[in-house]
Amino acid sequence: MTTNPELGTGAPYMDAIDRKILNLLYAGLNDASIARRCGVGHRTIQRKVQRLMERLEANGRVALGARAQELGLLAPSVNKVPESR
After folding, report:
1. Structure pTM?
2. Dihedral of alpha carbons 12, 36, 31, 44, sign
3. Is 67 in contact with 56 (CB distance < 8 Å)?
4. Fewer beta carbons within 10 Å, N or C terminal of the chain?
């Protein structure tokens, strides 16, 4: 696993799209909503989430968010997305 020198030795390197996906997942968006925001297909996001879970050794989406937070991979001000009416 390649590490990110900005985040220290334990955090893997993440490109911009991976970071965006992690932040949107952590904010509570589903794959379809993330796909729309990233301008890619729903299946692309599903594959990327699966690869992120493998890279971060997380066995589910909740564990992926917790692991990303633990490694400092999330934006500092990530908040839950308000529910639409």
Report:
1. 0.76
2. negative
3. yes
4. C
